[in-house]
Specification:
The complex is a heterodimer of chains A (173) and B (740). With 173 residues, chain A is mainly beta. Chain A has helices at residues 4-12, 157-162, and strands at 51-60, 64-73, 86-92, 97-103, 108-113, 118-123, 126-134, 139-146, 149-155. Chain A has two helices and nine strands, in the order αβββββββββα. In chain A, strands 4-3-8-9 form a four-stranded antiparallel beta sheet. The longest helix of chain A has 9 residues, at 4-12. The termini of chain A are far apart. In chain B, strands 33, 34, 35, 37, 38, 39, 40, 41, 42, 43, 46, 47 and 48 form a 13-stranded mixed beta sheet that branches. At the A-B interface, helix 1, strand 5, strand 6 and strand 7 of A face strand 45, strand 47, helix 5 and helix 8 of B. Strand 5 (108-113) of chain A pairs antiparallel with strand 47 of chain B, so a sheet runs across the interface.
């Protein structure tokens, strides 16, 4: 249980850079709709082949803000967890779910103090997360779900359209 | 209760800025040794910093306390923390002892003084005051001489906060105990002409420098045999019976004096005699290995010194029955040795048990040598036979290129991952290309080691000059033993040098090196890494403390990657079994050479600066040396030790939850290694009979675990239990289906 003082301080330091960046890796599932343009080819022996959609999110219990959005070279892993409270759902323009990623709660920071050989967990008010999503060129939005609550939706379709045929990495300037 | 700061300290701030650090050393003639007891006292502590801020604007009165970190010249550290002062005191002006129990220190040392504020009793956290003009907040003394009585007073300088503290040193003189040669009883004889030596051994009550002096009782002349510091408290050297000019010492009696060079009162004198044996004898009989001979790893060697030239043989007995005998061999006076490969005279192989090795012989004039025997044991090796290898340093390309001497180190282990010797270890290497430019496999044997647990092979210069090296290790037991076991690792690749800019577009990408990845031959017959969707990939990045822009820093980082990879492999016994070792051909170790800042945040957490994880890696580890609380979110973690990385790897790659009480976050491993009810645990856990709630004396969580022991990778960073191994198998099964 966090103390009153710790909670107080945590609120006050919202502007500070927060620890967490989290990458989740996922390989793209086949799009349900015909792609507008083929995704970059994937050679699984070459880490520079393929593409990923990198989201930088500032997350709290109730809100999410987009801090970074770019398409970069390199495919993502598809070895994913299936449990955990943090979920990202890729949807196309019709609302169909193209892919779902599940990961640990970014607000729960696991700690380890080597000198005391002790684990612990901190609950953050806010955390910065970097997530690599599979590049699916029909993706329109990414739903951000924490626990059972949908805390926001990120529009990514326009970037994907704008980056068609462009050199990677590609982002809105 | 909160108290408002009432005093204005502007005058003090001005004064502090002008302060210059000073030390007054009061040394007294002292005894010797490197041993001291050290006390640290905080005389004054002042601060103008707002260390206890409330609502951004209010500075509460801080509760100051001092911390002293004593660092010996061998790097060992001791930390002392002052008890909190009485409430209300902002500045400390009366002496407070920091090391309430004086620390025993060896050698020279320095003291880092830290000034802290602690309002944890009010629910807040600790914050460190700044005693320095630079980035560091603590203030360090210069090196202080140990083993001498002294008191020094230090005044910190130029920081917004200030402290005055004293370091008291009390010498601890050493007492020498001389075991050999004896000081009183019959002096031992030895014959240097036959290779016999005199052992000079004993121990020290406190580590000290020692001088060893040999004095001839016949002439009274003496010389210093050896002089050096003995930090371990034990000394053990030999005299080969030769004078400083290399000639044999004349036959006669000698005194051996062992003394602390600066404390004559510590001297101890032993006695010995140099002789020249006229009779026939075997001396200095020994075996290699000394005991626990695993006959499957190769022959045992028995050696001795023969006093005169003659014809010799070795006879081996087990339970009084002769089982083996060498042929007669004529040898000159001096060292002789015999081998036995473990095969009995009747062709059967050695069994575990005690064996007596007897040397026999006759001088050239026909007189028989007195038979001399040595008893040692033969044992079966522990079950299992595995071999692993990594480059050393772990990431040569980060150096920024492989330097001569870069090598491949192979280790042979038993099934429990403790070292076990192999009769032969073979290291093969081949040039390998950059990721996008594979080359054909051209293997050649670079080194063979015999009867060894490790084999280190330097990479040949032609391969070293290329992009990457591929290597394969094979270990085998002695030829001819029943069911001879052989272990062969798969080919793996390590990058050696960055590609030339003209050679392709890859240089525009991240500086991403293969530290150790499994190799495969593609459809064109070229050697390349296995497809990354078939391997679990761990990527390390250099955090603060590893400056890879320098050769030394890059090498340290390479060694840290090595340590972490060996930890994942479980080649340390205590974390056996290791799912990574079992699936080593499906695991890739990478390095992303982009520095990541790691600093200490107000909660003493390791806070990391901007960091872009490797997109395909299942785990991204930032290795560092900062003294802070390591932490992890998502598939990124910080680690100042390999054991932390071992634990976090299980979160990232196997999606396991923590099994320690009581901070929450168990849902991540739901159904994998944590269960939301006892019924779920009994239904889904590996062993229903051992389901136990994650709890401790402070509370219960409502979450359950199936693995029974508390020594568990998800609790104590140690052993993988049934659920952990099951999670690993599930992950590697996905990799086997190209779903990694």
């Amino acid at each position: 249980m966090l103390s009153r003082r710790t909670r107080l301080l945590a609120v006050l330091v919202l502007a500070l850079p927060v620890l967490a960046v989290g990458a989740i890796a996922a390989q793209g599932a086949p799009p349900r709709l015909a792609p507008v343009q083929p995704a970059p080819s994937v050679d699984f022996t070459d880490p520079s082949k393929g593409a990923h959609l990198r989201l930088g999110l500032r997350l709290s219990e109730a809100t999410v803000a987009l801090m970074m959005l770019e398409i970069g070279p390199g495919f993502t892993s598809s070895l994913r967890g299936s449990t955990g409270p943090f979920t990202l759902r890729l949807r196309d323009s019709a609302g169909a779910v193209l892919d779902t990623l599940t990961m640990d709660d970014p607000l729960a920071v696991r700690t380890y103090t080597s000198k005391q050989y002790a684990h612990g967990t901190l609950r953050l008010e806010e955390a910065d997360v970097i997530v690599d999503l599979p590049y699916i060129d029909t993706t329109a939005t990414v739903d951000v779900v924490l626990g059972r609550k949908r805390v926001g939706s990120i529009e990514v379709g326009s970037l994907i359209q704008a980056c068609m045929g462009k050199r990677l990495p590609c982002a809105f300037s | 209760m909160r108290r408002m700061r009432k005093r204005v300290r502007s005058l003090l701030a001005v004064a502090l800025a002008a302060v210059v650090g000073a030390a007054v050393l009061v040394a007294t003639p002292a005894a010797a040794s490197f041993g001291s007891t050290v006390t640290v006292t905080a005389n004054e502590m002042h601060t103008t910093e707002c260390l206890d801020r409330i609502w951004l604007v209010i500075c509460d009165t801080p509760e100051l306390f001092g911390v002293a970190v004593i660092t010996q010249d061998n790097g060992q550290q001791f930390r002392c923390e002052m008890a909190l002062p009485a409430a209300g005191g902002a500045d400390i002006t009366t002496p407070n002892t920091i090391c309430t129990t004086p620390q025993t220190i060896t050698g020279e040392f320095r003291v880092n003084f830290e000034l802290w504020e602690d309002d944890s009793m009010e629910g807040g956290s600790r914050e460190q005051a700044d005693l320095n003009p630079g980035t560091a907040k603590d203030w360090a003394t210069t090196s202080i001489l140990g083993g001498r009585d002294s008191t020094s007073t230090w005044i910190t300088s130029a920081g917004p906060s200030r402290a005055v503290f004293s370091v008291g040193v009390t010498a601890r003189p050493t007492t020498i105990t001389l075991n050999s040669p004896p000081t009183g009883s019959v002096p031992p004889d030895f014959d240097p002409r036959l290779g016999e030596t005199l052992t000079i051994s004993g121990y020290l009550s406190v580590p000290s420098a020692l001088r060893f002096v040999i004095t001839s009782l016949a002439t009274g002349s003496s010389f210093v045999l050896y002089e050096a510091p003995f930090y371990g408290g034990i000394f053990n050297i030999t005299w080969d019976g030769r004078m400083p000019d290399g000639t044999y010492a004349p036959v006669g009696a000698y005194d051996v004096t062992v003394v602390d060079p600066v404390d004559a009162g510590t001297a101890r004198i032993g006695h010995a005699r140099v002789i020249q044996r006229a009779g026939l004898s075997f001396t200095n009989m020994a075996s290699q290995p000394v005991s626990g001979w695993q006959y499957r790893s190769g022959p045992i060697t028995v050696s001795a010194v023969a006093s005169v030239t003659g014809t010799f043989r070795m006879v081996v007995f087990r339970a009084g029955v002769e089982v083996f005998r060498t042929g007669d061999q004529r040898r000159a006076a001096g060292p002789i040795s015999f081998l036995w490969n473990g095969r009995h005279a009747d062709g059967t192989w050695a069994q575990p048990g005690s064996y007596v090795f007897t040397l026999q012989g006759n001088a050239d004039d026909g007189r028989p040598f007195p038979a001399t025997s040595l008893t040692t044991s033969a044992v079966n090796p522990p079950p299992g036979f595995e071999v692993y290898a990594l480059a050393e340093p772990g990431v040569p390309a980060v150096n920024p290129q492989a330097v001569p001497g870069t090598s491949i180190r192979a280790k042979v282990v038993a099934g429990d991952h403790n070292p076990r010797p192999a009769a032969r270890i073979t290291v093969e290497m081949s040039p390998a290309g950059w990721i996008t430019r594979p080359v054909a496999l051209a293997p050649r044997v670079v080194k063979t080691c015999v009867q060894a647990t490790e084999c280190q092979a330097v990479i040949p210069s032609d391969i070293l000059a290329g992009d990457a090296v591929a290597y394969r290790i094979t270990a085998s037991e002695a030829e001819g033993v029943p069911d001879m076991a052989t272990a062969s690792a798969d080919w793996r690749i390590t990058d050696l040098n960055p590609p030339e800019p003209s050679q392709g577009p890859e240089v525009t990408l991240l500086p991403l090196w293969r530290a150790s990845v499994p190799a495969a031959v593609n459809k064109d017959g070229k050697l390349t890494n296995r497809p990354l969707n078939q391997t679990l990939d761990v990527a390390y990045a250099p955090g603060t403390g590893y400056d890879t822009s320098t050769l030394a820093g890059a090498r340290q980082f390479g060694n840290a990657v090595d340590d972490n990879a060996w930890q994942l492999l479980g080649v340390r016994g205590r974390i056996f079994p290791s799912s990574v070792a079992t699936h080593w051909s499906q695991v890739g170790i990478w390095v992303q050479n982009i520095p990541v800042e790691v600093k200490v945040d107000p909660d003493t957490l390791c806070a990391r600066g901007p960091f872009s994880p490797v997109s395909f890696a299942e785990a991204n580890g930032i290795l560092h040396t900062v003294n802070c609380r390591d932490n992890a979110t998502g598939n990124i973690f910080t680690a100042d030790s390999p054991t932390v990385g071992w634990h976090e790897f299980h979160h990232d790659a196997y999606h396991e939850g923590d099994e320690y009480c009581c901070d929450g976050g168990y849902s991540f491993g739901a159904g994998i290694n944590t269960y939301s009810s006892q019924a779920d645990c009994q239904r889904d856990g590996s062993d229903a009979s051992t389901c136990n709630e994650i709890s401790d004396s402070t509370g219960r969580t409502g979450w359950w675990r199936s693995d029974a022991p508390l020594s568990d990778v998800m609790i104590s960073n140690t052993v993988e239990r049934a659920d952990d191994l099951r999670a690993a198998e599930a992950a590697f099964a996905k990799c086997g289906r190209a779903q990694c």
